[in-house]
Amino acid sequence: MGRFYITTPIYYVNDVPHVGHAYTTVNADAMARWHRLIGDDTKFLTGTDEHGQKVADAAARHGVSPQQWTDQTSARFRETWDALSIRYDDFIRTTEPRHYRSVQKFLTAIYDNGYMYKDVYRGLYCVSCEDYYTLESSDEGRCPVHGRMLTEMEEENWFFRLSAFEDRLLAYYADHPDFVTPETKRNEAYAFIKGGLHDISITRTSISWGVPVPWDDRHVFYVWYDALINYLTALGYGDEHDEVATWWPASHHLIGKEIIRFHGVWWPAMCMAAGLEPPAHVHVHGWLLIGGQKLSKTMAADGAVRLTDIAPTVLTDEFGVDALRYYLLRDTVLGNDGEFSHEGITQRYNTDLANNLGNLVARVASVVATKCGGLGPAPTLDSPLRVSAQEALRDTREAWERFAPHAALEATWRLIGATNAYLESTSPWKMEPGVALEGVMGDALEAIRLVSVMASPAMPDVCREIWRRLGLDGQPGDETIEVSGHWGLYPPGRPVEKGEPLFPRRA
Ligand code: MSP
Known about the structure:
CATH architecture of the largest domain: 3-Layer(aba) Sandwich
Number of helices: 19
Bound molecules: 5'-O-[(L-methionyl)-sulphamoyl]adenosine
CATH class of the largest domain: Alpha Beta
Radius of gyration: 26 Å
Structural class: alpha/beta
CATH superfamily of the largest domain: HUPs
Shape: elongated
Largest sheet: 7 strands, parallel
């Protein structure tokens, strides 16, 4: 049994959650659920990033105070995660007192260690990115990500001596080849460091919506600088009794590709400067695209993408929670960009869920009802499905462990395919009641039991329902996969229920 600490980025509350946020959160949730299933002591953290210019502007636009605005929008994220069956262990808000304590302690440590100095910052700023650009790194004065004109800024700021960490960061990358994955993203971050690091401005006097700088009360910390520290706040950093030694540095940060520099360069350097180990893993995923475009809130505001059409709850209303989760996990290789489309989700739904999984459960329950008196028979120990089940378990496990949910689900679905093929070849619906028929049905029930354990990190609700229909007690995941993954554990004599179709076909 190990330990597994997984985090999502904390989401800006300038707007409501969309399916891009859901993509990261569902992936992290499934990963956390997998690790609970293998018996790891697991902590899954998500939350909202509530400071900064962008959020202050959104509040002003809506005529409410930043605190009111963040309270209401942060709640929308929680509601969405509830609707998506996200089981986080902690939800952090950066306006909480615990976060202020943590940020102030962390940054005071950096200050005391001599890595902060005051200077005048002159440069260009993109409020949408909450990031600084030089003229050279901009697109002729426009933000290279959002296309908007950058704002010129001149302010007396506190600076972080990022440049002092160039060599230490390069050494850290060399010693920890799997610090940033996949490798292409690692190379990108590494090249950025190799290219030379500049010190960064980390405080602001022009806004007040932020964490105050303890040693200079005219300043608040720049939003990114406060945000990254959330990963430690959740471990009680800054409190008298913290859990930092329990969970840190063995953390897994799952992030989108646009924020690698913050997580792969700044954050490890900040940890080093504060006297802490850098995080162990940064897993970078690609973007979900619609017609080749990233679905960002800013672009939606410009009218390029109708984001309201793809709020996660619109999709769960249409397809159900499990189908949306399955689609997000199965359709895109984590690390690559993926295309999000209504046709895509409909196709996965009809093929993988309705035709394969749903149909398997329905036809088995139906034969048990008509030919076995409604009670599930015992599986056979020398079943031809046993090898398929063992292979599926092995491959599913290996894939979850390397952060490859699409491959894990593919492996699990191979057992569904093998079971459907076994039923096709034995045709139990044509067999006379008796030992042979019971063996086939017991084997199919056992395969379904194992599928519902293996698929439960991705589709917790439907797997619980399948478990119940098989007449089993508790739910998949009550026992670790070490225990529940053995072939032959389906207990005979339980009432098997047919029920409504799990995934009625969609046009
Ligand atoms: N607040 C910062 C993160 C601070 S972490 C210390 C931030 N917030 S955000 O609201 O803009 O969310 C960014 C994250 O949302 C991305 O890194 C990614 O995980 C997710 N996604 C946003 N749009 C996405 C897609 N189109 N596709 C996939 N993920 C997307 O940045």
